[in-house]
Amino acid sequence: MKSLFKVTLLATTLAVALNAPAFAAPAAAPAASAESKSAFQNDDQKSAYALGASLGRYMENSLKEQEKLGIKLDKAQLIAGVQDAFADKSKLSDQEIEQTLQAFEARVKASAQEKMEKDAKENADKGKAYRDTFAKEKGVKTSSTGLLYKVEKAGTGEAPKDSDTVVVNYKGTLVDGKEFDNSYTRGEPLSFRLDGVIPGWTEGLKNIKKGGKIKLVIPPELAYGKNGVPGIPANSTLVFDVELLDIKPAPKADAAPQADEKAAAGDDAKQ
After folding, report:
1. CA 45 to CA 106: how far, in whole Å?
2. What predicted TM-score, i.e. pTM, was given to this entire model?
3. Helix crossing, 43-68 with 2-17: angle to 10°?
4. Distance spanning both ends of the chain, measured CA to CA
5. Mean per-residue pLDDT, 179-199
6. Contact status, residue 83 vs residue 56, Cβ threshold 8 Å
7. Which helix (H) or strand (E) holds 149?
8. What is the CA radius of gyration of the chain?
9. What are the percentages of helix, strand and coil residues in the chain, rounded to 5?
10. Which principal EC class is assigned to this enzyme (predicted)?
11. What angle do CA 127, 133, 137 make, to 5 degrees?
12. Residue 252: its pLDDT value, please?
């Protein structure tokens, strides 16, 4: 159990460092064939095989991700290590295994950090180039904060305020066109208080009214900045096509107190 626990910890560490799920569930596959069903004499055999297959799939994917970091592990030695551990014939002592894995973990983290910083710089450069090009298009405006936007349809009524709840449909992409979110394909608009989202949205949606449409090009400092989020790398410029479907004003904070005051005044008059 001790060795398995160490492997599990290492797998989790690698998954975090590489931004990949540990032991992710495989995609749905066709029903097992008659041949595969007959390969196992009982459920224990089938479960053991499934566990091995899951671990093997994870390690294969992990090796590929590590290669992206410039770390190329020997697959034959990995398999040999597993076999020797089961046979209780490890070429390394427990102390050597622990020290080696600690050093490996540090190398993975360092390589992942280096790659993240490199990618962040590339994202920043690509984003700036995209914004510079977009800024030259007809109808595009740039605010004092660096937000770029193009109103495609003004809408009617009043523009939303920070305290309002807005209902929108939208599509979000990176500057390379990769889509990371889309309410249209989900078939469900998004509803949120305007001051509860990224600054680029809070500022940008005030430039249209109900029924309006706008294209927002948001620099990283008005989005997710240097950290990024899953699906959106660090220093990413975000491109949104947004349709403002509805605006729901926040309830007036003084409505209830005023009603109470009127009721109190009525009671006084009766007395």
Report:
1. 37
2. 0.66
3. 40
4. 81
5. 96
6. no
7. strand 148-153
8. 28
9. 50, 15, 35
10. isomerase
11. 135
12. 76
